[in-house]
Design a protein that fits this description.
Strand content of chain A: 25-35%
Structural class of chain B: alpha/beta
Order of helices and strands of chain B: EEEHEEEHEHHHHHEHEHEEHH
Number of domains of chain A: 1
Largest interface: A-B, 32 and 33 residues
Largest sheet of chain A: 6 strands, mixed
Oligomer: heterodimer
CATH superfamily of one domain in chain B: P-loop containing nucleotide triphosphate hydrolases
CATH class of one domain in chain B: Alpha Beta
Number of strands of chain B: 11
CATH class of chain A: Alpha Beta
Strand order of the largest sheet of chain B: 7-8-9-3-10-11
Number of helices of chain A: 10
CATH architecture of chain A: 3-Layer(aba) Sandwich
CATH architecture of one domain in chain B: 3-Layer(aba) Sandwich
CATH superfamily of chain A: P-loop containing nucleotide triphosphate hydrolases
Structural class of chain A: alpha/beta
Chain lengths: ~260, ~280
């Protein structure tokens, strides 16, 4: 049983001379309940795969399936009930003129829930915000609190799969720890499957069991977190990425110069 | 070690409806020809400290200090006209995001040449030569093409390197880099750091490196100031950052996921109001 599967996925932008192949022949599966990470430089196509899954790219070929149901051109309501996404920038992804209550109740209403009031309380409680936050506007919240609201909104339709696009890269390290802990707890409580994009290998290693490394639109390697921690990747690019992420080393730079 | 910059008891205040907000509270430090890191969370006053040195805090914000001495001269007593000569010429600043710091309607070449001609007497040809040299110095391939390009036509990493090139054209004594690599990929980050590192070594420039990335600062800088709520809570040698004693620094370090040591849960920082109350740690402590 796989929660998500991608087979020979190609995504491109533009046409003719200007055509850019953003993702080339991507094939991987995410098992139910698994947490899967996508890493690579900016422009390597990791976020584009997520956007393709949610139907936000103009052209793609290949097959994608959610819970073994193949996806067509259009996404239906069941899809959005199953798959939800948390975006990178909590300062940009919440409506500035809607209160937390409005943000959550709109999502709930769109998904056909009737008992909106108790559900909002439950959602806020789930993400560790008290009822006092319910009638606040985004500008009255800190970055970490906003990301909690964004997570609550994603959880509102009771999805089984969460897409996390750099969920903590706009946050301080101390707040990042809180959000990552929250995501870990929610995953255990709600039996969620995670597909996570990040450029921070330490974060991905903390959150994910398997990791796909992307370079220039291609998945160069899929490896387990143990292999990654042991620094035994088989592809040279993965090795390079791992070394770069371990930090700036003067001796290494001097050796190159 | 000769002191390049000596800051004593720096305060930055902003009047608000609810009273005066102190963004920086009594910060003192000295800087030689070295790499000094300033770390802290957002809102801890690290960027404000950098801006205050250049007197870039706009009214109604106020800067107050016993002195901010650059090579023995107090910057606070300078006229605005003199300050303009110091900015760029003696002290430069690299901002976080090249997208917002480069002029979108001027080509990169024009901007670089302007930076040169404002600070030295050379002619146009001289300016052009120097701009090309600097672009090469920050390892930009094909500088001729980049000179003709507009900021939106270059990538983030290139934009940041162009910013650094521009700041270095007048050959400053002190570079203040405010999160210069936060918007960049790890691989490009290494290149940008290497460029700055080389300049400190070769030209004897002083560098203030403002960042929220503790690991990066401990690897890259010589000395670190750790700021919390506008105060310096701890200062230490960068390579000893991991042995830091202050509970705030420890908390920050422990909240990072570790690549080499997996944990079930990350430690969450428990804040102690006493940290914000304690006096800033002085330059010699």
């Amino acid at each position: 049983m796989s929660a998500l599967s991608f087979e020979d996925l190609n995504i491109w932008f533009g046409e003719g001379r200007d055509r850019v192949d953003a993702v080339k022949h991507a094939t991987f599966e995410v098992a139910r309940g698994e947490s899967f990470g996508l890493v690579g430089e900016s422009g390597s196509g990791k976020s584009t795969i997520m956007r393709a899954l949610t139907g936000l790219v103009p052209h793609c070929s290949g097959r994608m399936a959610v819970n073994d149901q193949p996806l067509g051109r259009k996404r239906d309501k069941t899809f959005y009930k199953t798959v939800q996404m948390v975006f990178q920038d909590p300062y940009a992804s919440l409506h500035p003129r809607q209160s937390v209550d409005q943000i959550l109740s709109e999502t709930l209403r769109l998904h056909g829930f009737r008992d909106i009031d108790p559900r909002i309380e439950k959602l806020l409680d789930d993400v560790g915000l008290g009822p006092a936050f319910r009638f606040r506007y985004p500008h009255q919240l800190s970055g970490g609190q906003r990301q909690r609201v964004a997570i609550a909104r994603a959880l509102a339709p009771e999805p089984s799969i969460l897409l996390l696009d750099e969920p903590t890269s706009a946050l301080d390290v101390s707040v990042q720890a809180e959000i990552l802990n929250l995501l870990t707890d929610l995953r255990a409580e709600h039996d969620l499957t995670f597909l996570m994009v990040s450029h921070d290998l330490a974060v991905v290693a903390h959150m994910c069991e398997r990791i796909a490394v992307m370079q220039a639109g291609e998945i160069v390697e899929v490896l387990s977190v143990e292999e990654m921690r042991a620094m035994t990747p088989s592809h040279p690019y993965t090795k390079q990425l791992l070394e770069a992420s371990l930090g700036y080393s003067r001796s290494e730079v001097e050796a190159v110069v | 070690m000769t002191e390049l910059l000596d800051v004593k008891n720096l305060w930055v205040r902003f009047p608000t409806r609810k009273g005066v907000f102190d963004a920086v509270r009594g910060v003192s430090f000295k800087l030689g020809r070295e790499r000094l890191g300033i770390v802290g969370e957002s809102g801890s006053g690290k960027s404000m400290t950098g801006r205050a040195i250049l007197r870039l805090i706009r009214a109604p914000g106020e800067v107050e200090a016993d002195y901010i001495k650059l090579d023995g001269e107090d910057l606070l007593s300078k006229s605005e006209a003199d300050m303009r000569k110091i900015r760029g010429d003696r002290i430069s600043m690299v901002m976080q995001d090249p997208k917002f710091s480069l002029n979108p309607v001027m080509t990169i070449g024009e901007q670089l040449m302007e930076a040169y001609r404002l600070h030295s007497k050379g002619g146009k040809a001289e300016a052009r030569k120097r701009a090309l040299e600097m672009l090469e110095a920050v390892s930009i391939r094909d500088p001729e093409r980049v000179m003709r390009a507009y900021p939106h036509e270059v990538s983030g990493g290139m934009g940041q390197r162009i910013m650094i090139a521009m700041m270095l054209i007048p050959d400053p004594d002190l570079l203040i880099a405010d999160e210069p690599t936060s918007a960049l990929d790890v691989s490009v980050q290494g290149q940008v750091l290497e460029i700055m590192d080389k300049l400190v070594r070769d030209r004897g420039m002083g560098l203030i490196f403002i960042s929220h990335d503790l690991n990066l600062v401990s690897q890259f800088c010589d000395r670190v100031l750790i700021m919390y709520a506008g105060r310096v809570v701890e200062t230490c040698d960068a390579d000893k950052l991991h042995e830091a004693k202050h509970p705030y620094t420890r908390g920050l370090l422990n909240s990072l996921p570790r690549f080499d040591a997996p944990q079930k849960r990350l430690e969450v920082l428990q804040r102690d109001p006493a940290w914000a109350e304690a006096e800033s740690v002085g330059p010699d402590a």
